[in-house]
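Action item from last week, closing it out:
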Amino acid sequence: MSAETTRQERFVRLAIVLSGAALALAVGWVLFVFVPSGNGARLLGVLLAVVLAVVGARVGARIAASRVSTYDVAAVSVEGPITRDGSGGRLPTRNSGKSADDVVETIENADDDGDARALLVELNTPGGQVVPSEDIRLAAERFDGPTVAYATDTCASGGYWIASGCDDFYAREGSVIGSIGVVGSRPNASDLLERVGVSYEQFTAGEYKDAGVPLKEIGDDERAYLQGIVDDYYEQFVDRVAAGRDIEPQTIRDTEARVFLGTEARDRGLVDAIGTREDAEEHLADELGTESVTVEAFEPQRGVAERLRGGATHTAFALGAGIASVLGTEEDGEFEFRV
C-alpha cells in the first residue's frame, strides 16, 4: 500500500465521517432549532442537534470503516503449547495459549476478509499436539495469498510443523528453531503400586486396548506397538516439512530433532531469512507489489456468553487438574504423543 493510497483512503474516511455529521446536524437543526419557537426551546434544540451530529459522526465512522480498507495484511499469532482446547497441558501451572480451533477459525476469517491480501503467522511456541498442529498448518497453507511465518523466541516441533505450511519463514538470530521430532511418553507407576500392595486388573477386548496404561509393566510387544505409532507420526512430520520447505527428507532426518539458533537454521535451509517483523512485512509488500503494508491483528471472534463459558471452563479445569494431581487418575498417565 503506497503512501499516496494511504492518504487518499484517510481523506475518504474523513469525508464520510464529516458528511455523516453534517447531515445529522442539518436534520437536527431543522427539527430542534428551526421549527421550535421560544429561546428555551431553541437552546434545547441546539443541544439536541449537536448530540445528533455526534451520533451521525459515529455512524459515518462505522460506514467508513466498512467501505474503506485500512489494512492489507492479517496477522495471526500462535503462542504457548499447541492444544485442541488451549489448556496448555494437563496441569493448570503450565502456560496456556489459544486453542488450535480458534487459530484455525481466525486464519479462515482472515482468508474470507476481502481486505486481507496476505497473512503473517507469528510463532512463539515449543510445540504441542500432533493433529492440532496439522490443522493450523493446513489453514495457513490454504490461505489465498502470500503467507509468511515469523518466529520470535521459539518455533520448535509443532510450531515448525505449522511454519512449513507458509510460503516463507523469517526468524531472529537468537530464535530457537527445529526439534523436528515426535515424543511418546507415559509414566510407569507399576513398581509404586507393588510397594504399596495395589495390583492392576482391567478387562479389555483387543490385545492392545490398554497399551500405555501406567499401572502395569509394559511388555516388549506393547513397546514396539507404541514406538511404531511414534515412528509413523515422525514420517508424517518429515513429509510435511520436506514438501512445505522443499527440503530433502534425509536432510531433515539428519537434524536428529535438534534445535538450532536462527542463523544456523537459515544455513541449513530450515528458515528463509533472518530479520525482524519489519523485514517480514517488507517482504510481504514486495509480494503484493506495494511500497509498504498495513498489518491488522486478527483475533478469535467470541461473544460475551462464550467468553464467560470459556473462563468457567478453564477455572473448572484448573480445579479438576489440581485435585487429580493429588489423587492421581488413570487418565493422567495415558500415553501421550507430542511434536
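Closing note: The two ends are 38 Å apart (CA to CA).
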